[in-house]
Amino acid sequence: MLTTIAAAQLPVLGALLAAGALAKVRTAMNESEPGALSRLGPAALVVDRWRVPALLGCAAGEMVLLVGLMATGHSLFRWGAATFFAVSTYVLWELRRRRPDVGCGCFGEVSAIPVGLRSLGRTMVLTAMAVGTVWTPPVPGWAVVAGLTWSQLLAVAGGLLVLAALSPEIEEAAARLRHRAPCEQRPLDPATALSRLRSSAAWRSHERLLSSTEPVDSWRELCWRFFVYPGHSHAGDPADVVFAIYLSGRHPAVRVAMVDAAGRPIEIGSLQESIPVSA
């Protein structure tokens, strides 16, 4: 039974690899605005002149794995897919830690939403799916698709539903269809962003550090709304607490940083995420 479920994930892996590769190529060839690639991984990890090659290189790797999985039953491509998704999980973790303002770029520009637990969970699920295929019969992916049984179809549907639930891009794509404009160009009342902030875990965990619950400054940069509050650090030193709220999605990302009077970041032992602050 487990072997049947694992084998049925080959079409799922193929569909995700194809969608990711095509979306990356489209984004690299049709950059919507200058600097847009700097907000997408893996392009965000390299200097400007290497961003397009990095995105195209990632797409090429996905296409190689796609062809190998679908045209052959060789374990090399199955282990390759498992390694690719495992490395992707590590890269997304590093992006979330070091560049919490950028998206994963998994599906091109629609993946500009900051990396969150759902994106990490998706790559972990894909890694598990790919590892599972290693112990299935060495049958090409096209043969699996051609001979899908009802039980395998249910396994395929289940895999796709899990991945859909872990894909914030679906919400972003729906928002783009509704608004016909990217997040950076959509109007949003600051009061709505403030309401989202005050219902977030980041607010609850830092509220005790605030001297006032009313912001002293607020501004918008692209798809982020910033709020600045007077407060103090864990050591008791005066500081500004800066919150950044992503302006798209049902569960928008909220980032927080603390800066001193000179605008220098203050290191906090319990703080896991920070944001670049500019005024």
Automatic annotation (TrEMBL):
Question: Looking at the Swiss-Prot or TrEMBL record, what is one Pfam family this protein matches?
Answer: MauE
Membrane topology per record: Multi-pass membrane protein
Methylamine utilisation protein MauE domain location, by residue? 7-135
Q: Name one GO biological process term.
A: methylamine metabolic process
Give the chief site where it resides. Answer: membrane
Kindly list the organism's lineage.
Answer: Bacteria, Bacillati, Actinomycetota, Actinomycetes, Streptosporangiales
Q: Which UniProt keywords are given for this protein, alphabetically ordered?
A: Membrane, Transmembrane, Transmembrane helix
One GO term describing the cellular component: membrane
Keyword Ligase among record annotations: no
Report the leader peptide range: none
Name listed for the protein in its UniProt record: Methylamine utilisation protein MauE domain-containing protein
- Metal-binding as a keyword of this entry, yes or no, is no
Q: Where in the cell is it found?
A: Membrane
